[in-house]
Design a protein that fits this description.
The structure holds 2 protein chains of 2 kinds.
Chain A (H helix, E strand, L loop, with lengths): L26 E2 L5 E5 L9 E2 L6 E2 L4 E4 L8 E2 L4 E10 L7 E9 L19 H10 L12 H10 L4 E5 L9 H8 L1 H15 L3 E7 L3 H8 L6 E6 L8 H9 L14 E5 H13 L5 E8 L5 E6 L4 H7 L8 E5 L6 E3 L12 E6 L14 H5 L6 H9 L3 H6 L10 H5 L6 H44 L8 H31 L1
Parallel strand pairs in A: 1-14, 9-10, 9-12, 10-11, 13-17
Antiparallel strand pairs in A: 2-8, 3-5, 4-7, 5-6, 7-8, 13-14, 15-16, 15-17
Helix pairs in contact in A: 1-2, 1-4, 3-4, 3-5, 4-7, 10-13
Chain B lengths: L1 H43 L13 H10 L11 H11 L18 E5 L9 H5 L5 E2 L7 E2 L19 E5 L22
Antiparallel strand pairs in B: 1-4, 2-3
Helix pairs in contact in B: 1-2
Classes of the chains: A alpha/beta, B mainly alpha.
Chain lengths: ~500, ~190
């Protein structure tokens, strides 16, 4: 029985450029001299280092532990020595530094002790969650949300459908397609494990209809329990909310989560990572990365986390001629980075090299409405732009600014070349800044009032007369003084008597 | 004559008593309403308690605005955002010319040069939010996460060892720049 598919609003069929990199087997990227591991490679609270500079570590050893519920540990990607714990450039559009642990590889690549979990089907879902958290698995699709948190939501709520997302809708990116073709058994087994963990009624693996090789690889392995669905290749069909719409016809409410409509979604690479974590106890220390675009040999690499981006680029024959730009992620949603020394992290799916051309000048909005037509979330980008441009961020929020998934289609079709997504990111970060300031003001006010109250208490304390002291010590003191006074009086009387006698 | 009396009784008298009632009611409600307005205004102020407005703290400035003794343009740390929000609340107009509030100040934090600090406690007393720790004849230090950058600790320091500096930019607080600034001035 084939599933009745639905559609999402907007979207576009884009040229995929996937042929550049999807034909070749993924190659193992060589071990670098130094690995830089950011403490935050996921959404949530950064991990907390548990090693010191100079420590020897083995591959797979925990070097930073999860620091809260929505947090993940970081593991050593290879064996070696910790040479620094400090701020280094990380993959972020700001180009700012963030806390990292640096490992000098010893070249042995020696595994530490890892323990597999036995037969997963007999294991309590709760225990699977712990394993998944301890192995540092975050969503490998792009956003990097800790996988165990999503699974926990699934355990706590009734899950109708588990969707494993293999819809790699952005042009150029083929790392998930390669993973499916090379490690299909991991993906399918991982799907069954997550399905067991969340007790899903249906399990679906979704891929695009232009991925015949992936379909072939999966079709041989999925049984009655997993449904393999191909969805029409239309950007952004791989977006979480869009894929839910396509497969189930359900719409995730504004500001809601997939679990609110009974769905849990994970990326195919996350499923494969779960399989490794559960059957072998292997933490996540490497991932598939697509290197594509303007490089000599575009292909996929299996890269240890912490490997510098420039090593991967050099491996694919890239030489910087000063006219290229490096994009982490795809051409639609990726971010431009300027420093090639930044490391590959859990969320790096693609390094794209494009010719750098100055953006065409933005012209005034002509209100053609094309942006609204392609928007997959049914927003009105032209209105959002208007409010973001004039600094009226609250009005932008009332037009559901935060439902924007930053897919980039509006800017892609804009005939005036207005960088719409940049405006929306700007507006979102401004709203976040205002909220931060408000929280700060509230906290300052609490401290100010507390300080005033304390000063008032002190003043009142000082103004109050001391109560009569009735303690034993005071009585002793008083009797001591009285005795002294009595002695003094006696002496005085004696003196006076002597004087009288003398007279 | 009868007509006049009838008119007086049926029209003017109820009108007069009505006006009297409304007036007295206003008089009764006014203090409560002012208090409410003061706290709304205070809620929009940045709570640095810096006194740059000429009043001892944010709440006093809010009271002054309500009393008509001050206007909404006297809060430099609040910047344009606070002025716009106050203007919206009070249904007034945000004027940015000739005022300090026309520039948005980047966040500042105080720092003590611990080598020079003599442990006099004067800055600790001056700090409105208890952001400085230390004790008499002991080294003092600023807690940068709590410091609001008001600068009130600088003047009391007898050895001039406190300076204000830009708060460190961290990824968590990253704010995208406005794209219009790089486009060909079309939106200027």
């Amino acid at each position: 029985m084939s599933r009745q598919l639905h559609t999402f609003p907007g979207g576009l069929k884009l040229a995929t450029f996937k042929h550049l990199s999807d034909s070749e087997m993924a190659q193992q990227q060589a071990l670098p001299e130094r690995l830089i591991l950011p403490l935050q490679q996921h959404i949530g609270i950064p991990a907390e280092p548990v090693v010191r500079i100079g420590d020897q570590v083995l591959k797979g050893q925990v070097i930073a532990r999860a620091n809260g519920y929505v947090s993940l540990p970081v593991h050593a990607s290879t064996s070696g020595r910790i040479i620094d714990i400090g701020d280094y450039p990380v993959p972020h559009p700001s180009g700012l530094n963030a806390p990292c642990i640096v490992i000098e590889a010893d070249g042995l690549d020696q595994w530490g002790e890892i323990t597999p979990t036995h037969e997963y089907a007999s294991v309590d879902p709760q225990e699977l969650q712990t394993v998944i958290c301890e192995c540092g698995i975050s969503g490998l699709g792009g956003a990097g949300f800790p996988a165990h948190v999503k699974i926990r939501e699934g355990v706590d709520n009734a899950v109708d459908t588990l969707i494993i997302n293999g819809v790699e809708c952005e042009p150029y990116i083929t790392c998930d397609a390669r993973l499916i073709q090379e490690k299909a058994q991991y993906v399918v087994a991982g799907t069954r494990m997550i399905g067991h963990a969340v007790q899903a009624r249906h399990c679906v693996i979704a891929i695009e209809d232009d991925m015949p090789a992936s379909y072939q690889a999966l079709a041989e392995l999925v049984g009655e329990d997993i449904e393999l669905v191909t969805v029409p290749a239309r950007y952004p069909a791989g977006g979480e909310k869009q894929l839910i719409q396509v497969i189930t016809g359900k719409t995730v409410p504004s500001g809601g989560l997939p679990i609110h409509v009974g769905i849990v979604m994970h990326n195919v690479a996350t499923a494969a990572a779960v399989y490794r974590a559960v059957t072998r106890g292997e933490p996540i220390i490497s991932r598939y990365v697509t290197i594509s675009g303007n490089v000599e040999r575009p292909r996929n690499l299996q890269v240890l986390l912490g490997t510098p981006v420039k090593d991967c680029l050099a491996n694919c024959g890239f030489t910087d001629d000063g006219r290229s730009k490096i994009i982490l992620g795809g051409p639609m949603m990726g971010m431009r980075v300027r420093n090639p020394d930044i490391p590959i992290t859990k969320t790096t799916n693609c390094i794209l090299i494009q010719r750098h051309e100055p953006a065409p000048p933005a012209l005034p909005c002509i209100r053609c409405g094309r942006c609204a037509e392609v928007c997959p979330v049914r927003l009105q980008p032209q209105q959002l732009y208007w409010h973001a441009e004039s600094g009226n961020f609250r009005a932008a929020q009332s037009y559901h600014l935060f439902d924007c998934i930053e897919c980039g289609l509006c800017a892609y079709v804009c005939p005036s070349h207005i960088p719409l997504v940049q405006y929306f990111r700007y507006a979102k970060s401004k709203v976040a800044e205002t909220e931060r300031r408000e929280r700060g003001a509230e906290y300052s006010l609490t401290r100010f009032l507390e300080k005033n109250a304390r000063a008032e208490r002190l003043r009142a304390d000082r103004a109050r007369p001391l109560p009569p002291d009735t303690s034993q010590a005071l009585a002793e003191k008083r009797s001591y003084i009285e005795a002294a006074v009595a002695r003094s009086k006696q002496k005085k009387e004696l003196l006076q008597k002597d004087q009288a006698d003398d007279d | 004559m009868d007509l006049i009396v009838t008119l007086l009784i049926t029209l003017i008298l109820p009108l007069a008593t009505g006006i009297l009632f409304i007036y007295s009611d206003r008089r009764k409600q006014e203090p409560a309403r002012n208090e409410e307005l003061t706290s709304s205004i205070n809620g929009l102020l940045p709570q640095t308690q810096c006194g740059a407005c000429g009043y001892p703290d944010c709440h006093s400035y809010a009271e002054a605005i309500v009393a008509g003794a001050s206007d909404i343009h006297q809060c430099p740390p609040g910047g344009t955002d606070t002025v716009s929000r106050l203007a919206e609340l009070l249904e007034g107009t945000a004027l940015f010319q000739h005022y300090d509030t026309s520039i948005d100040q980047p966040p500042l934090v105080a720092a003590i040069d611990e080598q020079l600090c003599i442990g006099c406690v004067k800055c600790i007393i001056a700090c409105p939010v208890d952001a400085i720790i230390g004790a008499a004849k002991q080294m003092h230090s600023v807690l940068p996460k709590i410091c609001t950058g008001c600068g009130l600790c600088i003047a009391p320091c007898p050895v001039e060892c406190i300076t204000l500096a830009l708060a460190e930019t961290r990824i968590k607080r990253f704010v995208w720049s406005k794209p219009g600034s790089t486009t060909a001035g079309v939106h200027a």
